[in-house]
Amino acid sequence: MQSSFAGPDFGVPIASSIKRVFVEMNDRDHEKDLDFLRQKRRALLEELHSDEHYENVEAIAFGSHDPFDVPVASCEACGRQRLQPRMSRVKDKPARWVMVCHCERKSKVIRKRPWETVLEWNAINLAGFNYQEMPLFGLSKLSPSDAHKRLTGIRRNLELRKNIIGLERNIGQRTRDTGEMEVPGKTFQERIEAYLGWCLWGLRLTKLAKNNSDQP
Ligand SMILES: [Zn+2]
């Protein structure tokens, strides 16, 4: 909601008092919204810092790998390891991307950011990547079910952080004049989103590995 909304312009003497009522109503809504956002943020921060949450996220081993650099899974349709699928621009302004293999297989959803585009491709080629080779989250020595458990905890952690950042950006923009909150940067927000994307990919990979290892 725009805080500058001032109601209709009646253009007669009573207009200013009516206008004031609109402004006051609008300010009240604005304050109520803000309070709601602040409360929500407090609740999420409490969960993020709770003992219970720390126990679930045994080790947040994000490692030093850049989350925007996503390895490309090999194609499940043709299985060509050496000929990697390529990223192709489907729209110039704003830029939109899709992954295309030499066999014509494509990622299903067109994406704005290159790292998301690779994750889209990876999501439909789960057999083309081993979760133990993920350079994030420290999964290399874990069994499929231990890895899945770790990622489940990390997922909650990332979702909490993503939501907190969203709320802080919202509160920060609404209270720019008082400087109540430092607005988290967009790149930081995108990094958390990328980590979450990796984590969801990892959850799919470990689920598949778990199912495969359950089979006799
Ligand atoms: Zn292919």
Account of the 3D structure:
The protein folds into 2 domains: 37-70 and 130-216, no CATH class; 72-128. The protein has a two-stranded antiparallel ribbon with strand order 1-2. The chain has 5 helices and 2 strands. It has helices at residues 15-48, 51-56, 114-123, 144-174, 186-214, and strands spanning 86-91, 96-100. Mean pLDDT is 85; it is low at 1-12. With 216 residues, it is mainly alpha-helical. Zinc ion is lined by residues 75, 77-78, 80, 101-103, 105. Zinc ion binds at residues 75, 77-78, 80, 101-103, 105.
Brief digest:
This protein is mostly helical and 216 residues long.
Instruction: Enumerate the distinct ligands.
Output: zinc ion
Q: Return residue spans where pLDDT drops below 50 for at least 5 consecutive residues.
A: 1-12
Largest pleated sheet: 2 strands, antiparallel
**Global Rg:** 23 Å
Tell me how many strands there are.
Answer: 2
Distance between the termini: 57 Å
**Helix segment tally:** 5
Strand order of the largest sheet: 1-2
The quaternary structure here is single chain
Helix content: 40-55%
**Residue-averaged pLDDT, rounded?**
85
Q: What is the overall silhouette? A: globular
- How many separate domains? 2
SSE order, as H and E? HHEEHHH
Please give a handful of descriptors for the protein shown:
mainly alpha, disordered N terminus, binds zinc ion, 216 residues, 5 helices, 2 domains
Topology:
Layout: H1 15-48, H2 51-56, E1 86-91, E2 96-100, H3 114-123, H4 144-174, H5 186-214
Helix pairs in contact: 1-4, 3-5, 4-5
